[in-house]
């Protein structure tokens, strides 16, 4: 057995060497070695398998969850985009669809004791809880000879894979299928905040496809902007239309020519003619930034306000410096669109009678027949008696039609040059034509003018034997604000014909280079037949539940719509990208307000 005196070898108090305090301090002061993990953290957490890890053809049956580490929990938000790499270099691109705290250890914290204890503490101990993120797989990213590509999610990530926030512009754009080039709408956002990357500029621009590589430009597959009062829909519409009017934007016609589009915008609030003028509040630094990002800005010089002449109404404004040109609707336009003079809910029998009466009138008076002459024609008692006795039009039907066609004396054949004689100025490649109706106090007159002029454009676009080659041979963007007032579902015979016309226009738009650009605060009132043809839906703040349901956006984005601030929007364009949230520019690119 060892002698007790040997204890001094280990610094005891027995015999042997007598250590001083300095010697003992030196012995205790051993060298400390700084250690670092073999691999530094480069993510927000890891793929977890405790509750399953599954990729399925049915998205609802997929289960992918990530454990979020303590230091990252406060910055994680629903909607953020994440990346989970596969061992072979491919990457799973996904979105946070849900967040959940779960207990780390088995305990019952729904008790008085736990509650009182928690209320006395300044914070919680994150180590006591697991923080899990539900991930929605969006695509698999992979490298190819043509650069980064995406495909459907067809493989499951490995357990414990590090998940990191997507911060590369190319990865995010590829993952969401956002085109590199096209018509600028805004910047990608999540929860009302712009997505930031490590690139310059740090924001991600959202654009609509505007070439023929993957089909027709989306402008000819129609756009709807829906938003409530004060949501910024006119501001947004102006900024988008300004991009369509860029000098370098052209579209290929069937004869091989590349032509800049003509924009015709109906304007119920006298706001769009302001696009002629610059926005004086747009400072030089902001303008340079827009130029670097390829965003067209500044007033559009080729802007003309075509003002409808209606009775004694006068259009007097100092809100813009655009040229003003008066026009009237000639009654001859009713020959091809008899519903323009129907004026109310005619049934099919009455509508057929109206067509017969108009055919007879124009046979007798020629194409130059006026509305006043038509009223005199309808006042002839001999005509009423003749048609009744022949069985062609019953006298009660005649009387019903006669009542409906009254009241258009301030609309047709006014003291101005007919629109049909001004087509070359009305439709100009690269030009913006605004048709203001704010000065017209009669709703019936407004509806007649908007539908008459828009039908003229549609008829000529769809015709195989057009009367006006300028319309047929020019790409046209037809903008209609408060579209719900003109393209609403109704049971009357004339309403069905109006909707039928615009449905045909929408169906053939890509072929004829005609794009509908509809703006409304009541999307639920737009006829379903027209709505189904719209490819791109831009949704700003809407408070009405029926309106939100009608725009048919994914439920995860639908729930955000009532809470969006001015300028925030959801874009649902299936042929362009995944459904996303974006933020429009804070500045109007032209004069506004």
Automatic annotation (TrEMBL):
The name this protein goes by in its record: ATP-binding protein
GO MF entries: ATP binding
Pfam families: DUF87 (PF01935)
Keywords associated with the record: ATP-binding, Nucleotide-binding
Bias (Basic and acidic residues) ranges: 21-42
PANTHER family named in the record: SLR6007 PROTEIN, UNCHARACTERIZED PROTEIN YJGR-RELATED
Spans annotated as Disordered: 1-42
Keyword Transmembrane: no
Domain AAA+ ATPase: 219-540
Organism: Natranaeroarchaeum aerophilus
Transmembrane segments: none
């Amino acid at each position: 057995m060892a002698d007790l005196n040997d204890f001094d070898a280990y610094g005891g108090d027995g015999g042997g060497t007598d250590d001083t305090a300095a010697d003992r301090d030196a012995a205790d002061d051993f060298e400390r070695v700084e250690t670092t993990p073999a691999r530094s953290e480069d993510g927000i957490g890891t793929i977890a398998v405790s509750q399953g890890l599954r990729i399925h053809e049915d998205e609802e049956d997929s289960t992918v969850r990530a454990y979020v580490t303590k230091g990252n929990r406060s910055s994680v938000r629903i909607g953020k985009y994440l990346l989970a790499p596969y061992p072979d270099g491919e990457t799973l691109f996904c979105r946070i669809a849900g967040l959940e705290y779960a207990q780390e250890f088995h305990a019952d914290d729904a008790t008085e004791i736990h509650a009182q204890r928690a209320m006395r503490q300044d914070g919680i101990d994150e180590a006591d809880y697991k923080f899990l993120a539900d991930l929605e797989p969006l695509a698999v990213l992979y490298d190819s000879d043509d650069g980064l590509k995406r495909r459907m999610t067809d493989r499951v990530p490995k357990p414990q894979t590090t998940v990191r926030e997507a911060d590369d512009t190319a990865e995010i754009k590829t993952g969401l299928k956002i085109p590199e080039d096209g018509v600028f709408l805004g910047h990608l956002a999540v929860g009302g905040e712009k997505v930031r990357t490590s690139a310059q500029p740090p924001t991600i621009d959202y654009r609509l496809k505007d070439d023929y590589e993957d089909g027709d430009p989306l402008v000819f597959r129609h756009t709807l902007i829906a938003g409530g009062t004060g949501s910024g829909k006119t501001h947004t519409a102006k900024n988008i239309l300004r991009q369509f009017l860029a000098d370098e934007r052209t579209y290929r016609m069937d004869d091989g020519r590349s032509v800049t589009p003509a924009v015709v915008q109906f304007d119920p609030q006298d706001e769009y003619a302001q696009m002629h003028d610059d926005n004086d509040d747009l400072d030089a630094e902001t303008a340079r930034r827009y130029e670097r990002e390829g965003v067209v800005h500044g007033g559009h010089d080729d802007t003309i306000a075509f003002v409808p002449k209606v009775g004694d109404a006068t259009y007097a404004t100092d809100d813009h410096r655009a040229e003003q040109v008066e026009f009237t609707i000639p009654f001859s336009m009713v020959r091809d669109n008899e519903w323009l003079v129907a004026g109310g809910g005619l049934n099919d029998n009455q509508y057929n009678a109206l067509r017969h009466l108009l055919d007879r009138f124009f046979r007798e008076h020629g194409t130059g027949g006026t509305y006043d002459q038509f009223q005199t024609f309808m006042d002839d008692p001999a005509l009423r008696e003749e048609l009744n006795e022949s069985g062609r039009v019953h006298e009660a039907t005649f009387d019903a039609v006669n009542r409906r066609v009254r009241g258009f004396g301030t609309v047709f054949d006014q003291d101005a040059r007919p629109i049909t004689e001004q087509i070359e100025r009305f439709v100009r490649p690269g030009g913006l034509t605004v048709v203001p109706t704010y000065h017209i106090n009669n709703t019936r007159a407004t509806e007649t003018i908007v539908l008459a002029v828009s039908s003229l454009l549609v008829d000529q676009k769809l015709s195989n034997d057009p009367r006006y080659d300028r319309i047929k041979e020019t790409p046209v963007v037809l903008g209609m604000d408060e579209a719900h007032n003109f393209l609403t579902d109704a049971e009357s015979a004339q309403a069905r014909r109006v909707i039928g016309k615009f449905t045909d226009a929408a169906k053939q738009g890509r072929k004829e280079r005609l794009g509908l650009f509809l703006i409304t605060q009541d999307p639920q009132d737009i006829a379903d037949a027209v709505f189904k043809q719209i490819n791109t839906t831009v949704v700003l703040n809407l408070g009405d539940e029926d309106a939100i349901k009608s725009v048919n956006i994914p439920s995860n984005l639908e729930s955000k719509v009532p809470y969006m601030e001015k300028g925030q929007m959801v874009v649902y364009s299936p042929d362009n990208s995944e459904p996303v949230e974006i933020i429009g520019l804070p500045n109007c690119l032209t004069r506004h307000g």
